[in-house]
Amino acid sequence: MKPSIPKGTRDFSHKEVNLRNFVKEKIKSNFEIFGFLPIETPSMEKLEVLTGKYGDDGEKLIFKILSNGEKLSKADLESLGEKKYSKFANSISEKALRYDLTVPFSRYVVQHQNDLTFPFKRYQLQSVWRADRPQYGRFQEFLQCDADIVGTVSNWQEIELCMLYDKIIQDLCINGVTLRINNRKILYGFSKLLGFDNRFNEFTLILDKLDKISIDGVINELTNKNFDKQKIKKIEYFLSVDGTNKFKLEKINEAFVDSKINLEGLRELNFIIDTIEKIGGLESIDLKFDLSLARGLSYYTGTIFELVVSSFPEVGSIGGGGRYDNLTASFGKKNLSGVGISIGFERLMMVLDKFKLFPREVNGSLEVLIANFGSHTALICNSILKMIRSKGIKSEFYPVHDKLKKQLSYANNKNIKYVIIIGDEETKTEEFILKYMKDGTQKKHKMSQLESILLSNLKK
User: Fold this and answer.
1) Which of 290, 391, 423, 431 is the Cys-Cys partner for 180 at CB 3.0 to 4.6 Å?
2) Using CA atoms, how far apart are residues 262 and 272, in angstroms rounded to an integer?
């Protein structure tokens, strides 16, 4: 059998893992600076925890885990015969791989509520799985980096999350990033006023495609789905309005003064946008109100976000999130509002790679190799190895007494910075040779100076 991996998954080399760890650490450190605490949840959840949370399209992408043993006797063969495959799949599966981190987090909050201090701020960096068609920037297994605040309705938390996004983007030196912002209450107000409220999810899913298929595409799709043509024209006008965030929100406010839910969403957005401006704005991100932003997940109820790189649209969004007021209710805890953001780690890595924003050297490789000159010097070399490792220097002793040329080639292939050479002659004179692999230069030093010289050179 030819070795291979499933589509939509990837292997990562040690170099890629080092780069991924570098970016993870940037994200993690900012999460912690902003006061978020780490948690982890299982890779799998009970199927009942995940179902009914993501809308019809999302539901189809849940990776279900096949039951085994006697549990398979519960298989609904009648549904299989009737080609009701989703119902049949549910009958032979009680667990599934997590689709995102937000729903498992909501389950975690309710299950551990007596141990938490609210508002509770948590972050997670873990993999999720979706049975999606693999394509550019879209995988079946990928890492998500989430930060959520649960237990308060305060819109100061949305401001906090905008600033968190801004700080991460600033630290990674990415230019041309836009944070699109909208509110599901505004969208619901629109759909109710236009008579689309009984088809709200369908309406918002089409609206969310605006940046991909343009206004004409959205209008055509709404028309083809038999939405009222006269009412479509009304939404077309508002989608076409251009100008500042304040101007666009004022236009909506003028048209819908009697829509309570719409006005509530407008108040929330105005507060967030105005406050960010008053406290000095965002350093690295352009905050932009976008009426077409809908977010496909059905659990969002208020403010919604999407993070995009304007000069790299083909990668899609590199982050998103929003306010969810009712998610914990399905687990028996009502009136516990939450808001959060997610960073699409894999797409973020693609952006950093495209614009060559990774540092030239990521400190993940070995720093020092001690050459092996046989049993006469092996004990001395390993005593040195123990000492320099105690100083945090990444190092190893070459395992066999090969020709020096082969050992140096090994160091080159692993991008090791320095090779310590201690042969019989150096042992007698209590000296060592330090070879700098980048340019091939080397210099002899007293053994008593080894620690200070090594530490000094590695700091350069």
Assistant:
1) 290
2) 16
HEC-encoded secondary structure of 423-449: CHHHHHHCEEEEEECCCCCEEEEEHHH
- If asked whether residues 189 and 272 sit together in one domain, one would say yes
The pLDDT profile of the chain, 460 residues, written as one tens digit per residue, is 899 999 999 999 988 999 999 999 999 999 999 999 999 999 999 999 999 888 777 888 999 998 887 777 777 777 777 677 677 777 778 899 999 999 999 999 999 999 999 999 999 999 999 999 998 888 999 999 999 999 999 999 999 999 999 999 999 999 999 999 999 999 888 888 777 878 888 888 888 887 788 888 888 888 888 888 887 887 888 888 899 999 999 988 887 777 777 889 999 999 999 999 999 999 999 999 999 898 866 789 999 999 999 999 999 999 999 999 988 998 999 999 999 999 999 999 999 999 999 987 676 678 999 999 999 999 999 999 999 999 999 999 999 999 999 999 999 999 899 999 999 999 999 999 999 999 999 999 999 999 999 999 988 7
Helix segments in 146-207, DSSP class H: 156-171, 184-193, 200-207
The answer to whether 248 and 181 are in contact (CB under 8 A) is no
Under 8 Å between Cβ of 341 and 320: yes
On whether both 342 and 256 belong to a single domain, the answer is yes
**Same domain, yes or no, for 181 and 327?**
yes
Q: Do 249 and 393 fall within a single domain?
A: no
Are 221 and 338 part of one and the same domain?
Answer: yes
Q: Do 384 and 413 sit in the same domain of this protein? A: yes
Instruction: Give dist(CA 325, CA 8) in Å, integer.
Output: 33
For residue 277, the enclosing domain spans: 14-45+99-354
